[in-house]
Amino acid sequence: MIKVLLIEDEKNLADMIAFFLEEEGYITERVHHAKDALLLFPQFQPDIVVTDLMLPETDGNDLVDAFRQQSTVPILMISASTMLNDRLRALHNGADDFLCKPFSLKELDARIKALLRRSAITYSDKPLQEEKPADVAGHVSVNEYRRTLFVDGQEIEVTHIEFEIMKELYGNPGKVFTRNELMDRIKGSERAYLDRTIDVHISSLRKKIEPDPKNPRFIKTVWGTGYKYVI
């Protein structure tokens, strides 16, 4: 799972952001002061840092400088400032993106995912061994960090919903998911889809990953209940 270090001195905002990120599946540590962030950083080893520009006793740019001396971790700066000079300074000092307050939490999530995608190839601090490896007993693998699905080492094109379904099944081998449980794991407007729509996406996934879609080896139907992934 992706680890986020959040540095925000407004405690209510920090709590709201952290709660949202944890609901989205991130592991989140939040601190309110730069000195605490510097102490926690080497222990927590985050995949991405989200930091406010204006912090007690410290400028967020100084914190970025300190992180950059030891890591290439993606850094997203957030601030109430809308001044172009503040955004440019943050980016020149080593921040990878800048998001102005107030912002949508969905946009924050999208910015985080974009930074993680862009850094996936060049991010040297944490090689992608944290990702779930390919099945030793099969030929399917899921890379959650890059949001990609592989069959026999070849990347397979899947839709957003197909990936979300596959991520849940693959990450919980043997667990039986009802259709409603799978729908609940898919965030956003997709939740309003009719129950049998899940069957359509499962059928599509089987055509893409199964040697014989009519006799599936990996995605099994549990009659009267739902589906499970078998290694």
UniProtKB/TrEMBL annotation:
Domain OmpR/PhoB-type: 131-231
Organism: Paenibacillus tundrae
Gene3D superfamilies, alphabetized: 3.40.50.2300, 6.10.250.690, Winged helix-like DNA-binding domain superfamily/Winged helix DNA-binding domain (1.10.10.10)
Keyword field: DNA-binding, Phosphoprotein, Transcription, Transcription regulation, Two-component regulatory system
Keyword flag Protease: no
Keyword DNA-binding attached: yes
Domain Response regulatory: residue ranges: 3-116
PANTHER family: DNA-BINDING DUAL MASTER TRANSCRIPTIONAL REGULATOR RPAA (PTHR48111:SF21), REGULATOR OF RPOS (PTHR48111)
Protein name: Two-component system response regulator RegX3
InterPro entries: CheY-like_superfamily, OmpR/PhoB-type_DNA-bd, Sig_transdc_resp-reg_C-effctor, Sig_transdc_resp-reg_receiver, WalR-like, WH-like_DNA-bd_sf
DNA-binding residues: 131-231
SUPFAM superfamilies associated with the record: C-terminal effector domain of the bipartite response regulators (SSF46894), CheY-like (SSF52172)
Modified residues (4-aspartylphosphate): D52
